[in-house]
Amino acid sequence: MAMLSFDIRSLTEHAVSVDDTLPADDPVWETGDPTPAEPLHVKGRLSAAGPSRFYWHGSIEGNVELACSRCLGDTAAHVSNEAHLIFAEADAEGVEDDPDVFLLDDRSPNLDLRPAVREQWLLNVPGYALCRDDCKGLCATCGAELNLGPCDCQQR
Q: 41: domain range?
């Protein structure tokens, strides 16, 4: 059974504490996703919340490697988020169009947290990152990295 995947039958009987990781090479990540620099830490509690409904209260935490928005060099950012999500069968009442509800695959006996964890990660990875607060960026004329010193254009 995949990590972060839980038997729905057992979830109806008792809650599950989650303290696991989601590796950067897990198949849930898609091409172009900003993947975690090391395994993403996932922890929380998954419990039944009525017929064919499950409630997840948990957190994700990890680091992501990004390009600096000014100089395009490598930088890292810490990502953490606390989430409250509902998992429900597609035919459950009141689930359509609710962004906090994840639909269960009715062909699977398991509840897989990974797609919801991926979505929470993507929503919380910063779109803008700096390698340092005083990053000078690149010269608009010649493209030289100004953190390394002035370029030839500026000395003219």
A: 5-155
pLDDT in the model for residue 95 = 65
Give the distance, in angstroms, between the CA of residue 95 and the centroid of all CA atoms in the same chain.
22
> What is the per-residue burial (b if ≥16 Cβ within 10 Å, else e) of 15-37?
ebebeebbebebebbeeeebbbb
* Rounded-to-integer distance, Cα 21 and Cα 117, Å: 10
Prediction pTM value: 0.82
pLDDT one-digit tens code per residue, 44-62: 999 998 888 899 999 999 9
Total domain count, the chain: 1
Residue with tokens 């062909």: 107
CB 125 within 8 A of CB 79: yes
